[in-house]
UniProtKB/TrEMBL annotation:
Oxidoreductase found in the keyword field: yes
Database matches in PROSITE patterns: 3HCDH (PS00067), ENOYL_COA_HYDRATASE (PS00166)
Pathway where this protein functions: Lipid metabolism; fatty acid beta-oxidation
Any one biological process term the GO annotation gives: fatty acid beta-oxidation
Family, as annotated: In the N-terminal section; belongs to the enoyl-CoA hydratase/isomerase family.
Name this protein carries in UniProt: enoyl-CoA hydratase
Domain 3-hydroxyacyl-CoA dehydrogenase NAD binding span(s) in chain numbering: 316-495
Entries under InterPro entries matching the protein: 3-OHacyl-CoA_DH_CS (IPR006180), 3-OHacyl-CoA_DH_NAD-bd (IPR006176), 3HC_DH_C (IPR006108), 6-PGluconate_DH-like_C_sf (IPR008927), ClpP/crotonase-like_dom_sf (IPR029045), Enoyl-CoA_hyd/isom_CS (IPR018376), Enoyl-CoA_hydra/iso (IPR001753), FA_oxidation_alpha_subunit (IPR050136)
Listed GO CC annotations: fatty acid beta-oxidation multienzyme complex
Taxonomic placement: Bacteria, Pseudomonadati, Pseudomonadota, Gammaproteobacteria, Oceanospirillales
Catalyzed reactions: a (3S)-3-hydroxyacyl-CoA + NAD(+) = a 3-oxoacyl-CoA + NADH + H(+)
Taxonomic source organism: Marinospirillum celere
EC number, UniProt record: 4.2.1.17
Keywords for this protein: Fatty acid metabolism, Isomerase, Lipid degradation, Lipid metabolism, Lyase, Multifunctional enzyme, NAD, Oxidoreductase
């Protein structure tokens, strides 16, 4: 044995080669923590001292190669100074360069995922062999940083600057055939032939049939671009990527700049440029929040996984109510492999549901995500029916009929008599209490909420709502089914609006208040979109449907009258009275016309001002800061109340629900991270400055306590 650590071992092989194997003890995957990097340094030093070696094979003993750096360390490490981060990266460069400079040929056998630092490690070797199902990529820009261990230096020299920019700026995971075509790897083989092929390549290099030294020099030399080519590649890419990433995500463009600045330099100098850019990005708020988002997502997945282990998978599902929502649920279930029955009381509704599923699957075929055969298989998993005939063998049913408590209660009671005694029944409702819907059921323990967000195929969140009598088995089965559907389930407790809508409607309340005090709805939309929301509140209300919003608002007002009830008519009432329902009938705050692709295009409608004029109490100018404060304080305050009331268990789940459910700007990390970033004390002071606007803006006693003690939602 040449070296033995807790994550890395290096042993001599009988043919004169050495094998460095990654196998992190106590973990299901390999990741490059600071401790593993230290071991890698020691292992490379041991290799340098070993005499008589002819070559090196780098491999993994786990199902993945390396998933990347240990992201759990990022917040504490990135809290250090820029100079510290530059020095830290240069130390890693020294280790990676030592692998690249070994006095014999080297090869990496990529058996599974090789991402981030794992991908950068394999770029150090002279040759790379991939298993057919393996993937490689540099996803760092998705965390607000850039590849910092040589990705911005070696990858462009291997596959060309344009291809490298596409991989790095997009943060993509790339399949083996793509990597081979680009020149990132040298061979793609079945997994069982991976090690044998890698050793064969070493033998060919040692025999002089493959010029490993020439390959190495290409990676260490400047990029082979003349000034005109360089300008065309980098300036064009910067403009395109900046437009696509948007102003709130600087890392993709900074990565291009780092590649460009290092293009004319040799390896070590180019790495200095990369290290400095990495350090600069690591210190940004965007990076801090995106790393936090990743950690929150891991926690949410871990909790869902724990529920999943408690139950058997759903083998057969059903959805009651076809239409757009039912068709969306059926499509999602069937496309992910779970057969589903789709029941309605009339044939036209069933055809509408099937049409929706067919349309979504056809788009997948057009985008080459699936084949026509796979589309046919998915459609075959959807069984439309007008009767309850085969419901006895359904494991879980999603009720998705009209949002009316009387109708839902009647349908649920009828359904309960048609399914097996241990079958789980769920209701897709956005506001109606799960506890109240369970009152007429004989087995309320088998019932819970399963709130999908529209459109079902796009929105990742599913709220799983625990009623007073919902059993842990019902919750676990529903979470597991949501995961089977490819969704992110978050468990919340029952209350009007649950978590997401309960938080959203104070945000809308802030918007209505702004309009009544003379704000221009177009200005509010622009400010909140600039802030980072995918659409402003007026546009969002149009998309939700102003009739749907009014109904939900009434439910919320009844549930929380002390802060959400309003006397007299509101702008929502007036819009509904005038038949302005939003996109669904082409007129709301805006008018909607079809664009060339047949999608609704927003058009300004002057008549909206006249319509809402009688409800405007004053006319004044609002700064962008005023608008942001009046919109965000009620939303954040209600999120705090949901956490304090136990509607949601952790700050991480609250923030992820808002990001996945209503498009809260990801780079801001969520409502509670937004408060943390401002400082709890500063947030309370801001809320107090808006006290005249009513109870939606009033801090809770516990939040005031946190402010006094200097506490945060996240440690």
């Amino acid at each position: 044995m040449i070296y033995q650590g807790k994550a890395i071992e290096v042993k001599a092989l009988s043919d004169g080669n050495a094998e460095l194997t990654l196998d992190l003890q106590g973990e299901s995957v390999n990741k490059l923590s600071s401790a593993v990097i230290q071991e890698l340094d020691e292992a490379v030093a041991a290799l340098q001292k070993e005499s008589g070696l002819k070559g090196l094979l780098i491999s993994s003993a786990k199902e993945v190669f390396i998933v990347g750096a240990d992201i759990t360390e990022f917040h504490s490490v990135f809290n250090q100074t820029e100079d510290y981060l530059v020095e830290m990266n240069l130390k890693v460069h020294k280790i990676f360069n030592a692998i690249e400079d070994l006095p014999f040929p080297t090869v990496t056998a990529v058996n599974g995922l090789a991402l981030g630092g794992g991908c950068e490690l394999l770029l150090t070797t002279d040759f790379r062999v991939m298993a057919e199902k393996a993937k490689v990529g540099l996803p760092e820009t998705k965390l607000g940083i850039i590849p910092g261990w040589g990705g911005c230096v070696r990858l462009p020299r291997l596959i060309g600057a344009d291809n490298a920019i596409e991989w790095i700026a997009g943060g993509t995971e790339n399949k083996a055939d793509v990597a081979l075509k680009m020149g990132a790897v040298d061979a793609v083989v079945p997994l069982e032939k991976l090690r044998e092929t890698a050793l064969d390549i070493l033998a060919e290099a040692q025999a002089g049939n493959l010029d490993w030294e020439a390959r190495r020099e290409v990676k260490k030399a400047p990029l082979q671009l003349n000034p005109i080519e360089s300008m065309m590649v980098f300036e064009t890419a910067k403009g395109f990527v900046a437009g696509k990433a948007g102003p709130h995500y600087p890392a993709p463009v900074e990565a291009i700049k780092a590649i460009q600045k290092g293009a004319t330099a040799k390896r070590d100098k180019a790495q200095e440029v990369e290290a400095k850019t990495f350090a600069k990005m690591a210190k940004t708020d965007v990076c801090f929040n995106l790393v936090g988002l990743f950690l929150n997502d891991q926690l949410v997945k871990k909790k869902a996984g724990a529920y999943e282990k408690q139950v058997n998978p759903t083998k057969k599902a059903a959805v009651l109510g076809a239409g757009i929502m039912g068709g969306g649920v059926a499509y999602q279930s069937a496309s992910k492999g779970t057969p589903i029955m789709m029941k309605d009381i009339n044939e036209d509704a069933l055809q509408l549901g099937l049409k929706e599923a067919n349309k979504l699957l056809s788009k997948q075929v057009q985008r080459k995500k699936i084949t026509a055969d796979q589309m046919g298989e998915a459609l075959a998993r959807i069984r439309p029916t007008l009767s309850y005939g085969d419901f006895k063998d359904v494991d879980l049913t999603v009720e998705a009929v009209v949002e009316n408590p009387k109708v839902k209660s009647a349908v649920l009671a009828e359904l309960e008599d048609q399914v097996a005694e241990d079958a789980i029944i769920t209701s897709n409702t956005s506001t109606i209490s799960i506890t109240s819907l369970a009152k007429n059921l004989k087995r309320p323990e088998n019932f819970c909420g399963m709130h999908f967000f529209n459109p079902v195929h796009r929105m990742p969140l599913v709220e799983v709502i625990r009623g007073e009598k919902s059993s842990e088995t019902a919750i676990a089965a529903t979470v597991a089914y949501a995961k089977q559907m490819g969704k992110t389930p978050i468990v919340v407790n029952d209350c009007p609006g649950f978590l997401v809508n309960r938080v959203l409607f104070p945000y809308f309340g802030g918007f209505i208040g702004l309009l009544e005090h003379g704000a221009d709805f177009k200005q509010v939309d622009k400010v909140m979109e600039k802030f980072g929301w995918p659409m402003g509140p007026a546009y969002l209300l149009d998309v939700v449907g102003l009739d749907t919003a009014l109904h939900a608002n009434e439910v919320m007002a009844e549930g929380f009258p002390e802060r959400m009830k309003r006397d007299g008519k509101t702008i929502l009432n007036v819009m509904n009275e005038e038949g302005r329902l939003g996109q669904k009938n082409d007129t709301g705050f805006y008018r909607y016309e079809e664009d060339r692709k047949g999608k609704p295009k927003k058009v300004f409608d002057d008549s909206t001002y006249e319509l809402i004029k009688p409800l405007i109490q004053a006319t004044r100018e609002f700064s962008d800061e005023d608008i942001i404060a009046r919109m965000m304080v009620p939303l954040c305050m209600e999120t705090v109340r949901c956490l304090e009331d136990g509607i949601v268990e952790t700050p991480a789940e609250a923030d992820m629900a808002l990001i996945y459910g209503i498009g809260f700007p990801p780079f801001r990390g969520g409502a509670l991270r937004y408060i943390d970033a401002m400082g709890v004390k500063a947030f309370v002071e801001l809320a107090d400055s808006l006290a005249e606007l009513g109870p939606l803006y009033t801090p809770t006693d516990k939040l005031r306590e946190m402010a006094e003690k200097g506490e945060r939602f996240y440690a």
